[in-house]
Amino acid sequence: MAEGATGRKPLISGNWKMHNNHFEAIQLVQTLSYALSDDDYAVVDVSVHPPFTDIRSVQTVLDADRIPMLLGAQHCHFEEKGAFTGEVAPAMLAKLNVKLVIAGHSERRELFGETDEMVNAKVKAIIRNSMTPILCVGETLTEREAGQAETKVTGQVRAGLAGVTKAAVGAMVIAYEPIWAIGTGKTATPEDAQAMCAHVRAAVREVSGPDAAASVRIQYGGSVKAANAAELLTQPDIDGALVGGASLEAENFARIAQYRLH
Ligand code: PGA
Question: Which of 99, 153, 233, 256 has the fewest CB atoms below 10 angstroms from its CB?
Fold first, then answer.
């Protein structure tokens, strides 16, 4: 299923995790915007996912300078409002012009106890609030070595998409992020990453049908950097990258978005 054939525009997303105060965030997004041109935005979508405290500042910069970068968030709660100390409602993000919200990142699942059910509720809440979820799936090293990578990922896709309409699934993003590759400097080989992303697409086909499977964008994530972006991003079932560490360096991240040129 070639990217050109289906018109899936690659999405390059920078997950800043818990880095950068709002001053640093403004500086990073401005430096990044100098490195990217309209020619880049014509062929790839670019999103940045700062911590909550930076979102308003980044939104103001994107608006004022008319930068066509998409604003993202890393997390939200699945309820609309209420007694949930410390949480942020999806509508609050939508009001800030946030377009994409990461749901079920492995760090949220492993460090903060997010279950498949919570991730599914979050995916639905994000869609209800007219934003696009980036649903993260991926296996641990132990699961991979035990030959369970496909089963794990299929289960996460099925659970994450339960009760979501086919049309909404088709407009979504799923990030395949093998946990052993996140922040470790280890990347899946392009062949492995392609095989797993094709597997994710097959799981989507099973749950939501062929149209949704053809249009859902599947990102690869896990130690993506300028040096390995092109070989990963030119695989037929890989429609972009979810980038952590390298997204904190404007030049490195811009070069990933410009992978076609390198
Ligand atoms: P990394 O993180 O690029 O630093 O491996 C990816 C992610 O966690 O989304």
Answer: 99
Q: What is the CB < 6 Å shell around ligand 1? A: 15, 177, 182-183, 221-224, 242-246
Per-residue buried b or exposed e for 150-164, using 16+ beta carbons within 10 Å of the residue's own CB:
bebbbebbebbbeeb
User: What is this structure's pTM?
Assistant: 0.96
The CA distance from 79 to 159, in Å, is: 18
Residue 166 Cα, ligand 1 centroid: separation in angstroms? 28
Q: Which domains does the chain have, with CATH numbers?
A: 11-261 (3.20.20.70)
Q: 11 in helix, strand or coil? A: strand
Its sign, for the CA torsion 195, 189, 8, 73, is positive
Query: Which residues carry out catalysis?
Result: 105, 177
Distance CA 107, CA 66 (A): 32
Q: Distance, CA 223 to ligand 1 centroid (Å)?
A: 6
pLDDT in tens, 23-49: 999 999 999 999 999 999 999 999 999
